[in-house]
Write a structure and sequence with these properties.
With 454 residues, this protein is of the alpha/beta class. It folds into 2 domains: 6-14 and 69-111 and 241-447, Rossmann fold; 22-55 and 114-234, Rossmann fold. It contains 19 helices and 15 strands. It has helices at 44-47, 53-59, 70-76, 88-94, 115-127, 141-153, 163-168, 170-178, 192-200, 208-220, 234-240, 242-254, 269-283, 301-304, 347-354, 365-379, 385-404, 422-429, 440-448, and strands spanning 5-8, 18-20, 65-67, 84-87, 99-104, 132-137, 156-162, 182-186, 225-227, 260-264, 290-296, 306-311, 320-325, 359-363, 409-414. It has a 7-stranded mixed β-sheet with strand order 1-4-5-15-10-11-14, sandwiched between helices. A 4-stranded parallel β-sheet has the order 8-7-6-9, sandwiched between helices. Strands 2-3 form a two-stranded antiparallel ribbon. It is globular. Bound molecules: pyridoxal-5'-phosphate. Residues 112, 114, 141-142, 231, 264-271, 339-340, 384, 386-387, 415-416 line the site of pyridoxal-5'-phosphate.
């Protein structure tokens, strides 16, 4: 193989026919979610106001394979299978013996991995007769993905967009509106929770935790509406496993097995999507990999948080889940990887970290942008600020391979492109980007308010 860039593409028929459910292969099940009022284990009926039964069934399923409905596979054909690239030019620039591969999710209409779950969520809701979906969005990627999915399956979509992003990222809002969604800044005067926040802090910049509270309230108080979440939950991670299943076949085409598998983590879904099919092999004794989740130093839930029951939102309306958390009252610094600014972590990712099956690493934003710029200048793709976290650690692993003189095979998930994040790149290039120290005091403060679970 002498060409510089090799693209491994599967034919459409090899889009997976089932999602992979890692719960089937776990040595112990993850701790159950609890009702926010009673603190007792949650039953399927407790979730019925928020989600259609098909998704609730997936949320609690222990079956290894869950069939992908044909209308979902058909919508996946708009952008799947996604390509796997070998980063020959980056390898050359690093002068490393390592082989670096990346799975590129930025070719979906939303520019990220998020349609992989937005599409089935819209499908199952439409099938259950739901007319309208309410959701939150931070930087705008999830809102965009759900707006597209809503358009494909004939659902109205209402997006509560974190105020700071709403003001700073007008193009994301315009894109969502073009796809037919209606978007309001959160906190908004349209929910009880939003009004309560605005009464105390009229100029609140909002947070993902607050926007979740508003979207949950919207769904819980309207008969025609359900709620959709873009990460964290078991069914969301399940839908994302199309990424890793395709990657396994593509690595076979390349004639290689990865030694290291890397993904960035906000709520954990793109990481899980790539990694879980590999972790499953490990759990079944069919392979051995180092699996690394990469998070920002500004929101270090896996590396500095505690493994405890906590709320998913600031208004304490969601179920409690056991996860690595910085506390639901923690509001992260305004780093540019907006999709990674979340206080918690998916329970399944948290559980695997607790079991020692995966590693976690935290990185500052300046070094991630340095890696992102090097990647853009060698591979030609402008990565999303979130994805640059994975690139940073892939580059570090490749440099370590060079020191050790080993031809290590590295695979990472390039979760999206950064075409809407040029302001962040401009700030990096002009030296104006800040690195935020680990906010020890604010985390301690937020952790002191963790719910007490008997
Ligand atoms: C939303 C987003 C993330 C973070 O979310 P996860 O659920 O952790 O994957 C990462 N990358 C991109 C491009 C995103 O849009």
């Amino acid at each position: 193989m002498t060409n510089n860039r090799i693209k491994f593409v599967l034919d459409e028929e090899r889009i997976p026919r089932a999602w992979y459910n890692i719960v089937a292969d776990l040595p112990s099940p993850p701790p159950p979610p609890l009702h926010p009022g009673t603190m007792q284990a949650l039953g399927p009926d407790d979730l019925a106001p928020l989600f259609p039964m098909a998704l609730i069934a997936q949320e609690v399923s222990a079956e290894r394979e869950i069939e992908i409905p044909e209308p979902v596979r058909d919508a996946y054909r708009l952008f799947r299978p996604s390509p796997l690239f070998r980063a020959r030019r980056l390898e050359k620039a690093l002068d490393t013996p390592a082989h670096i591969y990346y799975k590129y999710e930025g070719l979906s209409p939303a520019g990220s991995h998020k349609p992989n779950t937005a599409i089935p969520q819209a499908f199952y809701n439409a099938e259950a007769g739901v007319k309208r979906l309410a959701t939150e969005t931070g930087a705008g990627q999830w809102g965009t993905a759900l707006a597209i999915a809503g358009a494909l399956f004939g659902l109205e979509v209402k997006v509560y967009m974190v105020r700071a992003s709403y003001d700073q990222k007008p193009y994301r809002r315009m894109l969502m509106e073009t796809y037919g969604a209606s978007v309001v800044p959160s906190p908004s005067p349209t929910t009880n929770y939003g009004r309560a926040v605005l009464a105390v802090t009229p100029d609140s910049p909002g947070s993902l935790g607050m926007a979740i509270s508003e979207a949950v309230e919207d769904a819980a108080t309207r008969d025609d509406t359900k709620y959709a979440l873009g990460s964290v939950l078991n069914h969301v991670l399940l839908h994302q496993t199309v990424i890793g299943q395709e990657a396994i076949l593509q690595m076979e085409m390349a004639g290689e097995e990865p030694d290291v598998v890397i993904g960035c983590v906000g709520g954990g879904s793109n990481f899980a999507g790539l990694a879980f099919p590999f972790v499953g092999r490990m759990l079944r004794g069919e392979g051995s990999y180092r699996v690394i989740a990469v998070e920002p130093e500004a929101t270090p839930s896996l590396t500095r948080g505690v493994f405890a029951y906590d709320f998913g939102d600031t208004g304490h309306m969601t179920p409690l889940v056991k996860m690595y958390t910085l506390g639901s009252e923690f509001i992260p610094e305004p780093i540019h990887a907006g999709g990674l600014r979340y206080h918690g972590m998916a329970p399944l990712v948290s559980h695997l970290k607790d079991l020692g099956q995966i590693e976690a690493r935290a990185v500052h934003q300046n070094p991630t942008f340095a890696a992102g710029v090097q990647f853009a200048r060698t591979e030609g793709i402008l990565p999303a600020p979130e994805s640059t976290h994975a690139i940073r650690v892939a580059v570090d692993e490749a440099l370590r391979a060079k020191e050790e003189g080993v031809a290590r095979v590295i695979l990472f998930n390039l979760s999206g492109h950064g075409h809407f994040d040029l302001t962040a790149y401009e700030r990096y290039l002009s030296g104006a980007l800040e690195d935020f120290e680990y906010p020890a005091e604010r985390v301690a403060h937020a952790l002191a308010a963790l719910p007490v679970v008997g």
